[in-house]
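Researcher: I'd like a candidate sequence for this fold, 147 residues long. If you have to choose between options at a position, lean toward the conservative one.
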């Protein structure tokens, strides 16, 4: 079933917690992003395979990285990697995983504050300037901003 022509069947196999890990390896390189995202959501995926999926940095793989960020099987190593993702939605999603350490959450928060501080939106800029966790070096730069 993991090699079925119908991607809907392969998706069901990928998301099924009872699917053997040997089958997960067949689905890892599936042509369908939906199948790989379902595999990244599977709570019984091996951390090694989840890390491989989380390392797909293409923009079309954002749903895969989002699923990996929410997966309870995600290790702190995987979450630390995803906390540095280019997509802000992936970074924010890392904060929803109970496995995220305080250090990882702090990194996500600091990155969000820096992005807000240097955003073109004056409202975001002011929010970041007023946030108590904004680092002093960024406050100094922010004071000289045209906003």
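Model: Candidate sequence:
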């Amino acid at each position: 079933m993991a090699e079925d022509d119908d991607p809907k069947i392969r998706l069901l196999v990928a998301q099924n917690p009872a699917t053997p890990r040997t089958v997960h390896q067949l689905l890892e390189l599936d042509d369908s992003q939906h199948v790989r995202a379902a595999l990244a959501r599977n709570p019984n995926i091996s951390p090694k395979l989840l890390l491989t999926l989380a390392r797909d940095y293409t923009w079309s793989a954002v749903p895969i990285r989002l699923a990996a960020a929410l997966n309870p099987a995600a290790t702190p190593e995987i979450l630390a990697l995803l906390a540095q993702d280019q997509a802000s939605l992936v970074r924010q999603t890392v904060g929803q995983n109970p496995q995220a350490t305080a250090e990882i959450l702090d990194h996500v928060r600091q990155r969000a504050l820096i992005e807000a501080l240097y955003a073109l939106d004056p409202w975001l800029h002011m929010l970041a300037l007023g946030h108590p966790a904004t680092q002093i070096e960024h406050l100094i730069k922010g004071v000289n901003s045209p906003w």
